[in-house]
Write a structure and sequence with these properties.
The complex is a heterodimer of chains A (181) and B (674). Chain A has 181 residues and is an alpha/beta fold. Chain A is 40% helix and 13% strand. The longest helix of chain A has 19 residues. The chains are: A alpha/beta (181), B alpha/beta (674).
Amino acid sequence: MAATDTPMKPDGFHPRITAFVCNWCTYTGADLAGTSRLQMASNVRIIRLPCTGRIDHMFIVKAFERGADGVIVSGCHPADCHYTAGNYHARRRFGVFRELMDFMGIDPQRVTFSWVSASEGAKWKDVVNETVARVAELGPFDAYHELAGDTVTGGEPAPGPFEAASGAETPDPLEELEVGR
Amino acid sequence: MARIGVFVCHCGENIARTVDCARVVEELKSHPGVVHSEDYKYMCSDPGQALVRKAIEENDLTGVVVCACSPHMHEKTFRGAAAKAGLNPFLCEMANIREHCSWIHEDRGEATDKAIDIGRTIIEKVKHNVPLETIRIPVTKRALVIGGGIAGIQAALDIADGGAEVVLVEKESSIGGHMSQLSETFPTLDCSQCILTPRMVEVLQHPRIKLHSYSELESLEGYIGNFKATIRKKARSVDEDLCNGCGDCQAACPSRKIPSEFDAGIGKRSAIYVPFPQAVPNIPVLDRVNCTRFKAKRKGIEKDVCGKCQEACLKGAIDYEQEDSFVTEDVGAVVVATGFQLYSIGRDQPAGLKGYGEYGYGDVPDVIDGMQFERLASASGPTGGEILRPSDGKPPKTVVFVQCVGSRDPEKGIPYCSKICCMYTAKHTMLYKHKVHDGKAIVFYMDIRAGGKGYDEFTRRAIEDDGAQYVRGRVSRIYRDGDVVKVWGFDTLSGEQVVVDADMVVLATAMRPQPGIAELAQKLSISYDEHGFINEAHPKLRPVETNTAGVFIAGACQAPRDIPESVAMASATAAKVLGLFSADELEREPTVALVNEQTCIGCFSCEQVCPYGAIEHVDVCDVEGHVCGVVARVNPGVCQGCGTCVAVCPSKSVELQGFTDEQIYAEINALGSW
């Protein structure tokens, strides 16, 4: 199971994904994925927050700075927020942040923004596997280290910060978000 | 200097099978700040918790990390254990290496590496945890029950009998719900109304129950123990205080051919009506859509037409000008008991459902659903309890019952089993055979699911004593052919096609949640599944609670339920509500926002995003006592701890306790070393 569900890692590259999820929907949905024994890629490390509204975008920048190759942000579906509106704030801020990512030279494709409800264990598995596969395709993120003069990761020189993004075509997350469930 | 203790649980085999717990213990032992690290087979067991307590006392720990299951599962357990050993409970955190690791990976090496990472992030977080004190808040000992079906009635009565006040809100003009429509109930065949109506009257007469009929919840504000519910009392056009329920208005109404909702569309009612004679409260409602007077108004006729009901009412209770009004009620708990609707297969379908055009429902008059059959069989129904087919009023000699119409058919949008149809179909065949002795009852079924006390015996009785003929197979098509209804089916046991010339067909349609359930769930901040059924907090251990504290569920709004289950759930909910009301103060987690008033610049961005209105303005005074500025302060009783204010604060003056920037950056940084 695991072998087939874990996306192939060309040249042995193991992307490192940090996930910022809300406590009520996505964290519980990920719990459900566990209870349902849904096998998925093991590259994601979850940081639990009460709500996506709590997410300061510096968290995401920091995650990249500390060596993450990709980030997942996931919370309750629009209108289903445990705190009424936190996910709307998160969505709005993410729209702005995406521009900033571009400016900083972080390929927006390295960040997945999704809604996973407490009953969507299977969707969480898909979000994890798709993100891992997409980031594996994009390769390691070491542009930040180069800029910072940091040689922690070493290895191949990374593409320049303003180099065009390559990789798989992905749906525009914001467009999908507008539709809701 | 941090002194952290790490406790790795095997969870029997659940974690140990894929995670090398010994290696996790070894790796984390050398993590900076960790002074104690051990593993145990069941950390949540008594001896396991004793290990935690002992380690705290012996090593003078400043923080505890339990690498085990989800915090939603056992955070409370271990925080309790920590508190017993004298450690502030908020210095204990769970590292979820079961749901988020051992259960979803098979590769032992990968899973163990990940478990170590998860442990490290939480260790780094706990280093920044600070002791917190639980918040104590007052409780309003009054419950709001939404829905006046059997579940809502039972919950309301049990809570009220327990000594607390209840506000019962019902959207229809009478309480009673679907149970009041049934003729008899399985597996005892006792008359549904006979056992229900005394309970309805009890609700009306109970000194601690306040009933709002023909009303809906408009909005809910607040939090556990302290909700403020706004209830919309829909315009009934009848003054509830003046009306004495004599029924003269109903008798005088000239519009008498309106399909009755209570009779599932097969009976007729007037425009001003009480849905059924035993209605509680026995106060009519004017259906403005079908009333001649209001129809004329909508057409632009200025002169007042009709007005017969007003003339007939000697009490002067009819009020055509009445408008929706709003009342607010302070409550401490909310019970959702909104029940179900039947999959209306012939009409327009909501997204995701396909309907059964091939079964002719809505086109062929003698194809009816289970609820319509109940009304035909009911002594209070349009036929007075005689089974007569709708098209020509003749007693049908051959009736085909089709089970699983909608249910267990993912193709049509509903994969789940509606649970009650096997039983009520067996009941229908019996009711039919008891009334039409020479009639033939044929049932098409997929499986017979008769789990329950006396249930299997009941279906056997339908087959063996009353001679219902059960055919195992699906029906592909139902259509009208002259005087008969042709049913094409397939008998999978004999492997032959079956064609029946039926006089009437009864479809056992699926149970679905009430329309508008999503909007209601959003008002209550509770979650629902892909079908619209309300999610319980835990499928096994917290079946009547939701993830929103103070909001409970009962009956078929959570999943298909029969009457005994709905009643049991309602009583369970009542016990939970009464438990909540048993103390004068509630303890709440202190994960609330806190403003640093020294650095706050008073921009009140936080106030704009706070969904709870928890931000207060506080004057800052100079040494002479003159006000020289205004800063924000969070009311900890109102704050729910979402942290949205933290993320918008431009001067970084708000912190969310338990999820501070320091803690989260520590977690992110811990991941940097993987």
